[in-house]
Amino acid sequence: MSDAPVLEIRDLHVSIGDVEILRGIDLSLVEGEINALMGRNGSGKSTLALVIMGHPAYEVTKGEILLDGENLLEMKPFERARAGVFLSFQYPQAVPGLQVGNFLRKSVKALKGDDAPSAREFRKQLNAACDALDIDKKILSRYVNDGFSGGEKKRFEILQLMLLKPRIIILDETDSGLDIDAMRTVAAGINSSVNGSACLIITHYQRILEYVRPDHVHVLIDGRIVASGGYELAEQLEAKGYEWLDQEASP
Amino acid sequence: MSEVAREAVGDYKAGWHDPEQSTIRFDAGLSEQVVRDISAIKDEPEWMTDIRVKAYHHFMERPMPTWGSTELLNSIDFDKICYFLRSGEGTEKNWDDVPEDIKNTFDKLGIPAAEQKWLGGVTAQYESEAVYHSIREDLEAQGVVFLDMDAGLREHEETVKKYFCSIIPYQDNKFSALNTAVWSGGSFIYVPKGVKVEMPVQAYFRINAENMGQFERTLIIADEGSSIHYVEGCTAPTYSSDSLHSAVVELIAMPGAYIRYTTIQNWSNNVYNLVTKRGVANENATIEWIDANIGSKLTMKYPSVILKGEGAHGEVISVAYAGEGMHQDAGAKMHHLASNTTSKILSKSITKDGGRGSYRGMVTVSKKAENCKVNVVCDALILDEKSRSDTYPTMEIKNPSCRCEHEASVSKVSDDQVFYLMSRGHSEDEALALIVNGFFEPFVRTLPMEYAVELNKLMALEMEGSIG
After folding, report:
1. What kind of architecture, by CATH, is found in domain A33-55+77-249?
2. Is A93 within 8 Å of chain B by CB?
């Protein structure tokens, strides 16, 4: 593990259509560290997550993202995934007819190639992860996110996280829609996966951060990071809300 | 034209059993004489010759259908078609004539060289002797008759005479008339009372030079309480230099019998595939048509079930894929003639690169048929703006106690779905293949394992290079 960032975002400007959503983001993710990105709805948090993963709807107008010093923005989403980037989606997509078990196995193979675990080893990991996340194994024969409840979708994202073992973890509002017990379970799953990876947790509540302790906290308002600090910044936000930072946001 | 034909018959008489001389090919074109010659070569009983000739005249008089893809139908040149070909060892086709893209697909599907030649129409037959014999012995031990149609006619003439054209008369449509006039090959199956054939029976294993016949004729009779699953075709593209394929399949399910008929066809896109398939289900019998149409220039095929006995059940589960230059006009028909009969139609189509898919379905419930249940689901997945999908459902429900459900959906693959799968390490093509195979999954899970795996692989190949 080195202190050099694995993922470095420099002066990132992003638009969708004519609307500029991110207006100059600088952020570095280092292996073994958890960063939290907080902000209200509409502040651009999810945009940042989707841009890191490479969603085609967003246009980067300025700035860069480097992965191990290489230009991440030139890579296709699947290349980013194969390089170790993982996004836990806020709104995971349903794929009717694609069975969860089959999908997971195929995804592990796509990402790890020859290093993928044997079928037996994979099955073992899968069972352990399902148990840890309190997921009924019947899910394996269901179709990907098809008819899943909000909570099931989030657990399934974390199940993928645990099996795919990425180096860079982006969690986009994984806590939203979870009750407190589910959140604890999911947080335990995240903690077991973070181990040595670089992690970015996107949330607008401080609650999940009680279970997954960030090393750094950043506040995003109107497409800019207006404050950064330690865990205490999250506590401040919880106590005071976002208003006191609004002034920082005005140009 | 029949000079050549009669010469061929002469050759045949001279040495039918010598494989080196057994290649018989008629000149292109159809006449009463050609029909009589076909019957003579096969040494058929007079009644069969008669029905062929009658069917021929009906075919000549019958106008072309005025629905479906009339433009394509009217472009068929019946004079250019060769109506009879029987090959022995010496075949006139050459591996070099098989188009490159089809050879590439064979390679990508990992099909062994010998089988490739069979699929490419270069060799007349390909089968695993060992597997074939063990299956054949099992069937014989149970009293199941499994022959090609010509042998069926020779060895079980009375049964064939009783049922031939009983479900699909030659007057049914122009192409059933053509098939009746010039049929060759196909399967004849009889399953005795109470016999359950456990393994799917595959046309693939039949030793028969006319396996891939243009005008196959199949008749399956499942006696009381028996069951059989018949599988024909394969997922690999079948190259054929013959441009017209017109089969007729008749199924008879006696009381309590079960017939599943699975077809997977992937014709090369020069082929017109115009097929008539119909079954009669007696009391508490079940007939299921499982039908995959992957290629061809034009397919018109509407497997039907006549629910004749009380408590009978009919099912058609079909998928169609139409790519560039293909039109799949497929569907199903269910006729509820008796009370407490149930039917289910599930039709799924995918269109891409300007392909066209049409669902054409008909469900009728007669006045006397009480408490019938009908369920129709049609789903279309359109992969690009150039492609097209249409639905033509017809329902004639004459008994008010019928419970009838109809659902139809048309969907497109969303960028977000593809992106989600890509974020898990799958390339664009792989992502699309996962979505497309998911769409076909309700169909694929009805298939024997090896067919399911092959079909998924094939669709993945079809999706290559689809997205930017």
Report:
1. 3-Layer(aba) Sandwich (3.40)
2. yes
**DSSP string for residues in B409-432:** EEEE--HHHHHHHHTTT--HHHHH
pLDDT in tens, A25-51: 999 999 999 999 999 888 999 999 999
Spatial distance between the Cα atoms of B233 and B238, rounded to a whole number of angstroms: 9
List the single residue in A98, A107, A143 with the smallest CB-CB distance to B425. A107
* B235, pLDDT greater than 60: yes
**Residue A96 C-alpha, separation from nearest chain B C-alpha, in angstroms:** 6
Pairwise CA distance, residues B407 & B343, whole Å: 14
Per-residue b/e over B6-44, b at no fewer than 16 CB within 10 Å?
A: eebbeebeeeeeeeeebbbebeebbeeebbbbbbbbbeb
User: What's residue B345's pLDDT?
Assistant: 97
pLDDT digits (tens, 9 = 90+) for A11-26: 999 999 899 999 999 9
> Sign (positive/negative) of CA torsion B2, B5, B11, B15?
negative
Domain spans, chain B:
2-95, 416-468
CB contact under 8 A, A89 and B437: no
What's the pLDDT band for B19 if we cut at 50, 70, 90? Answer: very low
List b or e across A13-47, with b for residues whose CB sees 16 or more CB atoms inside 10 angstroms: bbbeeeebbbbebebbbbbebbbbbbbeeebbbbb
Is the separation of the CB atoms in A213 and A244 below 8 Å?
no
Which of A82, A92, A93 has its CB closest to that of B425?
A: A82
Q: Which of B315, B334, B272 is closest to B77 using CA atoms?
A: B272
| Rounded Cα–Cα distance for residues B202 and B199 (Å) | 9
Question: Inter-chain contact B423–A89, Cβ cutoff 8 Å?
Answer: yes
Q: Round to whole Å and give the CA distance between B297 and B71.
A: 12
Inter-chain CB proximity B439 and A160 less than 8 Å: no
Q: Find the largest Cα–Cα distance for chain A.
A: 57
Which element (helix H / strand E) includes A248? helix A243-249
Interface predicted TM-score of the whole assembly (ipTM), two decimals: 0.96
- Domain residue spans of chain A: 33-55+77-249
How far, in Å, CA of B464 to CA of B433, rounded?
A: 8
Is residue B186 very low, low, confident or very high in pLDDT (cuts 50, 70, 90)?
confident
Instruction: Mark yes or no for CB contact A78/B423 under 8 Å.
Output: yes
Nearest CA in chain B to A95: B435
pLDDT bracket for residue B22 (50, 70, 90): very low
Beta strands in B339-430 (DSSP E): 342-351, 356-365, 373-382, 388-397, 403-412
- pLDDT tens for B369-405 read 999 999 999 999 999 899 999 999 999 999 999 999 9
Q: In whole angstroms, give the CA distance from residue A29 to residue A171.
A: 13
User: Under a CB-based contact definition with an 8 Å cutoff, are residues A61 and A12 in contact?
Assistant: no
Lowest-confidence region among B37-41, B331-335, B449-453: B449-453
Q: Is A1 on the interface with B (CB under 8 A)?
A: no
